[in-house]
Amino acid sequence: MKEAVNGDKPILAVRDLEKTFGSVVAARDITVSVPAEQTVGVIGANGAGKTTFVNMITGHLTPSKGTILFEDKDITGMPSREITQLGISRSFQVAQIFPTLSVFDNMVIAAAVARRAGGLLGNVTTPVHSPDAIAEADATIDLFQIDRYRNTTASQLPQGVRKLLDIGMAVVGWPRLLLLDEPTSGISIEEKFDLMNVVMSALKTRKITVLFVEHDMEIVARFADRVLAFYDGTVIADGTAHETLDNPRVQELISGVRKPGGAHA
Amino acid sequence: MLTAFAILTDGLVYAAYLFIVAIGLTLIFGVMKILNVTHGSFYAFGAYGAATAVGIYANADWPAALGFLFMITLAMLVGLIMGIILERGLLRLVYGKDEVVIVLVTYATFLILEDVIVLIWGAQSYAAYQPMVAAGSIEIGDLVLSNYDILLVAIAVVLAALAYWALKYTRQGRLLTTVIFDRETAAAFGINVTLVYTATFVIGAMLGALGGAVMAPKISVTLGIGVEVIVLAFAVVAIGGMGSIEGALIGALIVGICRAAAVHLAPQIELFVIYGVMALVLVARPYGLFVRAQPRKI
Amino acid sequence: MITREKLAGGLAFLFAAAAAPLAPEWVVSLATIAFANALVVLGLVVLWRTGLVSFGQALYYCIGAYTVALIVRWSGFTDAFALVALGGVGAGIVAALVGFLLARYREIFFAMLSLALSMILYGVLVKTETLGSTDGFSVSTPSFLGYRPHGEALGLSLYWFTLAIDAVAAVLVGAYFRSVAGSLATPIRDNEIRVEFLGVSVTRIIHTKVVIAGVLGGLGGALAALTIGHVDPAMSYWTTSGGFVFVTILAGAGSVAAAFVGSLVFEMVRSFAVDIMPGLWQMVLGSVLLLTILFLPDGLGSLVARLRKREEAKP
What we know:
The structure holds 3 protein chains of 3 kinds.
Chain A: E1 10-21, E2 24-35, E3 39-44, H1 50-57, E4 65-70, E5 73-74, H2 80-86, E6 88-91, H3 103-114, H4 122-125, H5 131-143, H6 159-171, E7 177-181, H7 189-205, E8 209-213, H8 217-223, E9 226-231, E10 234-240, H9 241-246, H10 248-253
Parallel strand pairs in A: 3-8, 3-9, 6-7, 7-8
Antiparallel strand pairs in A: 1-2, 1-4, 4-5, 9-10
Chain B: H1 2-32, H2 39-59, H3 67-94, H4 99-121, H5 130-135, E1 137-140, E2 143-146, H6 147-169, H7 171-181, H8 183-188, H9 193-215, H10 225-240, H11 245-265, H12 270-284
Antiparallel strand pairs in B: 1-2
Helix pairs in contact in B: 1-6, 1-9, 1-10, 1-11, 2-3, 2-4, 2-9, 2-10, 3-9, 6-7, 10-11, 10-12, 11-12
Chain C: H1 2-19, H2 25-48, H3 58-75, H4 80-102, H5 107-127, E1 137-138, H6 151-178, H7 180-183, H8 185-190, H9 192-197, H10 202-228, E2 230-231, H11 238-251, H12 256-276, H13 281-295, H14 301-313
Antiparallel strand pairs in C: 1-2
Helix pairs in contact in C: 2-6, 2-10, 2-11, 2-12, 3-4, 3-5, 3-10, 4-10, 6-10, 11-12, 11-13
């Protein structure tokens, strides 16, 4: 296992993670640590355990074995909402937005939730349209360059804007770690790079550590500081984008890696 | 000992009644994802129709043995007509809306039909005890069993067997289970989903009316019988798991035996016990005994 | 816009308060019942915004009413303020308890479990002979912080008292709608997964809504018990719940005011319809409900919003 590039304390440290569904092993022996502000790409075939990995970190699945430390705090098996409150956010393969609300309302609700007062009555005593939340929502809408859709109902949005809104809603609460599950899935090849440029520069601005699952190796090579390759539920290669993508096992086992620059399945 | 035996027989009879009213409700829910509050109306119309039939029959000079058949035939005919009118005339318009909106539609229909009953049959009660008397009773030791109750259990068993056979061993039944599991795939395989919906709803309506008809001789047919049934049938179906025929059977048995036990041992809690059992089951299994909660995929 | 709405609400409240002494006694009593029931409807509106319908809201209505009636009967205590508060608290406690079960469910299960719970109470009350079974029992006249009105003064006092509680409830519920928890109603209906990943427990939010609706239901029942001067198990029967749901769907979830207007219209129409077409009341209800769902799915309140939009569109 390659250690983190710089010597800082890791923001995320995963040890011996395993997830089984009955007799099926979805993930096993995953040990990874990620330093702050690193951008990590996660590659692998469908069913290789990438989404299971993301789901365990964000609390959607409870690991069968192993530990997950976030900023030295053990978050293994915590419910997702508590993990969110600690500073880990995620976006989804299929954008999870509120289709009947406008882009602004989607964003302002996400902002208000993140900034609500604590305590038993925090939800009830914090107004949703506080000047703070409105400013935060508008700032994030601008950051993701979707301001011309501000008043559009979310169900009417083009696919790329939906994705940006989805990621924006994850970012509006100022998380320190963000997990992107296939940010470019469902996006046409021509739009992918533009979308990722917008997303990655926004995340850089906010100094967010990123883990993103991606099938397109060009995108991975272009945006990831470091790449984890998953096969059969575990990490088979971990290094800089170049190291991982040039790894012969990775090239053998993960389709699309062999011919960078070519067409992808 | 006698009490235990009485609890068992009473419980079985009550379970038979519950199963007959619940099977139509769970069938419609299983296939169409509609909780059909109008099921209570089908039951009530079945009971009133049966009472009318018994009245006609008692005045005519026909052989007594066929009275029961005449009664349930007429009631199921009522169910058939109501089912077709409702599905084609109203429900068709709201498919695809929220489940709860469709419940409201069936609830509104139920309200309207409650007054239609008053318009047709008036506000007075009807008795239709003749078939029950004609059936007589048998004695086993100290216990007297009504033959009509035995018939009721037999009908429930036949219905359960028929439903099991129809769903597992006929082409149409297997088609139906396909629609239950995935409507879009079913349509893609060339299954006429519209027809399946109409057929399911009509069969459900006829089963509801049958429930009313077979119970008519045992009860006073009066206003408000529909709502009791819908709440009871829901409890049975919720215990077993909505949409599951096996669930309805087990749910009916559980509720039937528990209620009979309460009637014999602690009559004060009779009404409470049904919902108490339901609450207990749902705390342990939120979607009933035979339905698993679906994990959310993201 | 918000200030205009508040102004309109305040004026309507003042008008409703000032007009009462000029109105005939039966109108005042009808309006008192309507405004007591409006609290129950307001609770249902809180749920309906999240896409939840309770077919058993009469449970809390009945608990509020019986709490008041039993306290008066056993202790002779008659202060309306304390009684109504206790009615709301009693119903709120029950709501908090059953909320643990209900908050796990949505849509049909939520609706039908609520119904089943209210029918349990109905069954228990009908079988309890010491509380008068189906006949119920009467509640003696209340006092207001030592003031003991009679006759017409009593009717007016109850009316103003109800109106004052309504105003407080309307302001509080309005504030709730503008809070984070309140604004999550549509998001929860749209996409619970996202709400959870924003860091909010959907179950807890729904539990809160069940309790809010329960307290409002209890307050409404408590006021109704004092106004009618009698309680009986029918207060928990499904038809009572059905009436509340009816007004909710008709009024729509758009605004707080709709609950009050809707409830008033409902009571007025009922008092006439029962006179003109006795025996067809449920048919009228069912038909109007069907037409509303088919042609005006957001309720009558949405008509106002639509008119205003058209007005704004004009140069």
